[in-house]
Amino acid sequence: MKHMLVTLVALFIASASYADYSRDYIDTVPVKYTQSADTAIAYRVFNRGSDHPKLLLVMGLGGAGAAWGDDFIQRIEAQGFELMVIDNRDTGGSDLFTNWGTPTIWWQILKYELGFSVDAPYTLRDMASDSVAVLDAEGHDQVHVMGVSMGGMIAQVIAAQHPERVQTLTSIMSTTFAPHLPPPSRAAEDELRDLAGGDAELSREAKMRARGFHPESMERHLMAIFKSGDRTREVQTISAPTLVLHGSEDPLVPPAHGMHTAEQIEGSRFVLLDGMGHNLPDEFHDQIVGLMSEHIYSQIDDQQLHQQQQKHVYYDEMTSNDH
């Protein structure tokens, strides 16, 4: 249970660890709303264009869409994508579950380790359904999906549960949550041990909120992960072309988690990002966006080539019938 508790608190910390950050551009784009069952979901659409490939971005633990930051969003725009950026439920402009209360973490983790179901107001499948509701609201039958950390888990669920809606999947520093995978490293425990309380803790929380994270929602998000449990078998059903990215220095979700994810998905590609931890630092934006863009556009080119080949076959058949 010790490692589980370290994971919980360290994830809180990592969420605020991004370096240079701005959301000025993000906040110029109006928020839209749609309904997912009985939950209102907020989202933004960037770089609209009828001929732009459609890309859905899903943020991690406690994160609203603004947590991606201006630089990352604008770099993706520059690659020609139309982006749908969702506020996960319990964050941003989406419905909050404050009235549900805060789970008693030690008790819920103990229940999980003993094989009992944890208490949670929603699951990762519910959060995946929120994303599908956004696709429906925008009138998109199929999109490309990218998620980071918990958002990568949600993206995996979308691809597994709604395969007809996903053209490609990009899963970043995420996991299947298989129980045999390694716990956080000693470095994560050391970081936790060195943290100050009092004013430093308050300052850290204020920074997190300014960057689009909701500390009060993180525990409920974490319970959604525990409630969903090991998703290995579900991930094995993913048929969308998949790219898995993971930082070599990730102390919270060690690289073995990303490798295991890729091993479960037939034909997937795994890329270890040398020197990256459990974050999206500016110096890795070009590499991440470049790998994702290459992954998506290569699939688009393959699909267009296949369509052209099909047209030629049809033409040849028609010509043959004429004779």
Give the strand tally: 8
* First-residue to last-residue Cα separation: 75 Å
Instruction: Determine the strand fraction and express it as a percent band.
Output: 5-15%
User: What is the mean predicted local confidence, pLDDT?
Assistant: 86
Which shape, going by the Cα principal axes?
globular
Low-confidence runs of at least 5 consecutive residues: 1-18, 192-198, 311-315
CATH architecture: 3-Layer(aba) Sandwich
Helicity level: 40-55%
- The main sheet orders its strands as 1-2-4-3-5-6-7-8
Largest beta-sheet characterization: 8 strands, mixed
Give the number of helices: 11
CATH first level:
Alpha Beta
Task: Briefly note the CATH topology name.
Answer: Rossmann fold
Fourth-tier CATH superfamily name: Alpha/Beta hydrolase fold, catalytic domain
Task: Return the structural class.
Answer: alpha/beta
User: What is the N-to-C order of secondary-structure elements (H for helix, E for strand)?
Assistant: HEEEHEHHEHEHHHHEHEH
Radius of gyration using CA atoms only: 20 Å
Total domain count: 1
